[in-house]
Amino acid sequence: MDRNLIRIRTLDKEDITKILDQSKVFLEILDRPIKKVPALRGKVVVTLFFEPSTRTRMSFELAAKMLSADVLNFAASTSSAVKGESLKDTALTMKALGADYIVVRHTHTGAPEFIAKQGDFRVINGGDGFGEHPTQALLDLFTIRQKLGRLEGLNVAIMGDIAHSRVARSNIFALTKMGANVRLVAPPTMLPVNIEKLGAQVHYRPDAIFEDTDVLYLLRVQTERQKDSLLPSLKEYAELFGVNGDLLSKFKKDVIVMHPGPINRGVEISHDVADGNDTYIEEQVRNGLVVRMAVLYLLEGGKEAAHEAVN
Amino acid sequence: MKSKTVEIMDEEGIKRALIRIAHEILEKNKGAERLALLGLQTRGVPIAERLAAIIKEIEGADVPVGALDVTLYRDDLSHMRHHPQVRATTVPFNVENSRIVITDEVIYTGRTIRAAMDAIMDLGRPQLIQLAALIDRGHRELPIRADYVGKNIPTSRLEWVHVRLREVDGIEGVTLGRSLDRAADDE
C-alpha cells in the first residue's frame, strides 16, 4: 500500500484485492456487542469536507471511531474557509493540530494531492471535483464480490450522468482493473467524449444491456445540474432511463441493482425497485464502513519499522 | 546467514503432548461444560481443533472451536510502518460466562496473550480464561503464564522455535534454531 489513497487509477489489481480481502475480515467487528478495536488508538483523523456529504463523512467518522482514532470534523460552511482561509493554510492548521489522516472532499479535482504535499499526514480522497471517489468504488466492488462471489468476467452496467460522476470514473478504473466488463449507459449529453478509451462500452439506451448484465449500477441524476441543459426534463429521463419494476423485469432474473446514494426516488429509480429485494443500497452503506476501516488500517505509517516480535 | 537447527519434537511427540493437555483441561475444568477452545491465528487454530477432537474421544463432548486474530490489539502497531494483514476472527460460541482456553503454538514474551485477553474481553465476559501452549520458551515480558504446556524449552533470545503443523505447513515437527552469525541475529 501507498501512503495515501487518492486515485484508483494509480492502484493495481493486487492493491485492490488486498483492500477488499482486509475489508472482509472487519465485517466481524460490526456484529460485536462493543464495536471497537484499539488499532488506531491515539491517531487523529480529520474529515475535511468542502462539499456537502452525509454518508461518506459519517462513514469515515464511524470507521475511524471503530478503530479507536480521534476524529475532528471540518465542514467548510461553518469554518474559517468562509473567512477566506486558503486550502494550504487549512492544511497547515491540520498539520499543526497533529492530524495523522486527512479525509478530504473538495470541489476542485486534485485538491487531495495538493493537501498531501503540505504535511506528513496520510490523505484519503473522499471525492474531488470531477476526479475520483476511490472508497466508493472499493465499497461497490466489495459489495459485488460479496453478492456474486467474483469480479472477473462480470458485466457491470453503469447508468446515468457519467460525465459529471467521479463515482463512475473510479468504478470504471476499478472494475476494468479487476477484469469486469463495463458498459456505460446514458444519453449522449451525459457521456464524456472518448470515455470508451478507458476500456468501457458505450450505449445510449438501456435495451442494449438487458440480456447479460450482472450488475446494474445507477447514478444519481444531479438535479442541481438541470440548468446545464443535459436533459429536456427529469420526466423524460425517468421514462427512458428510470429503473422501475417493469424495466427491471426485462433484465436477467438475478441482476443486482446498486446506487451510491443519495437516491432520487421516481427519477433514476422507482420506489418499488429502491425498496425491492434486488437492490443492495443499504448493504453498500454497511460495507462502506468496513472498506474505510480497512483503508485507514492499511495506509502506511510514518514511523520506523519496528522489529517483528514473534510468538 | 549460517544457522543450525535441532528437532525437539516430532509428530508423535506433538500428538502425545496434545493428548496429555486435553486430559489436563478436562481434569482442571471438571469436564467439558461451557468449555470453548480459541486458537490464535494461525497455528493456534489447528491446535484448538485437534484438542477438541481428542476431548470428543475422551469425553464424548463437542467443545466449540473459534479462531482469534489479535493483530488489531498488538501493543506495537503504532511503531510499524506497514500494518500486517489481519486474518479472520470467528467466535462461534457465546463468550459470556464461557470457560475459554486460548491455544497457541509457542508462548514467549506473553504480549500476544495480553492482546488476546483484551480481544476476548471486547466480545463478552467469560467466566475464566486459560492458556494452552505447545511450547513454552520462557523470556516473559509480562506477568502471564500458561496453564497447560506441551514442552518447556529453555532458550536463549538468540534462538528461535519453529512449530510446523500439517494443516498449515504440510509437515509436522518442532525445531530449535540458532544463528551461528551472532551479529546478524542480535536483538
Topology:
The complex is a heterodimer of chains A (about 300) and B (about 190).
Chain A: H1 13-30, E1 44-49, H2 55-66, E2 70-75, H3 87-96, E3 101-106, H4 111-116, E4 122-128, H5 134-148, E5 155-159, H6 166-177, E6 181-185, E7 200-203, E8 215-218, H7 234-241, H8 245-248, E9 256-258, H9 271-274, H10 281-298
Parallel strand pairs in A: 1-2, 1-3, 3-4, 5-6, 5-8, 6-7, 8-9
Chain B: E1 3-9, H1 11-28, E2 35-40, H2 44-59, E3 65-68, E4 99-107, H3 111-123, E5 128-136, E6 148-152, E7 159-164, H4 166-169, E8 173-179, H5 182-185
Parallel strand pairs in B: 2-3, 2-4, 4-5, 5-6
Antiparallel strand pairs in B: 1-8, 7-8
Helix pairs in contact in B: 1-2
Q: How would you describe this structure to a colleague?
A:
The complex is a heterodimer of chains A (311) and B (187). By secondary structure, chain A is of the alpha/beta class. Chain A folds into 2 domains: 13-133 and 287-298, Rossmann fold (3-Layer(aba) Sandwich), CATH 3.40.50.1370; 134-281, Rossmann fold. Chain A has helices at residues 13-30, 55-66, 87-96, 111-116, 134-148, 166-177, 234-241, 245-248, 271-274, 281-298; strands at 44-49, 70-75, 101-106, 122-128, 155-159, 181-185, 200-203, 215-218, 256-258. The longest helix of chain A has 18 residues, at 13-30. The two termini of chain A are 26 Å apart. Chain B has helices at residues 11-28, 44-59, 111-123, 166-169, 182-185; strands at 3-9, 35-40, 65-68, 99-107, 128-136, 148-152, 159-164, 173-179. Chain B has 187 residues and is of the alpha/beta class. Chain B has a single domain, classed as Rossmann fold. Helices cover 29% and strands 28% of the residues of chain B. The chains are: A alpha/beta (311), B alpha/beta (187).
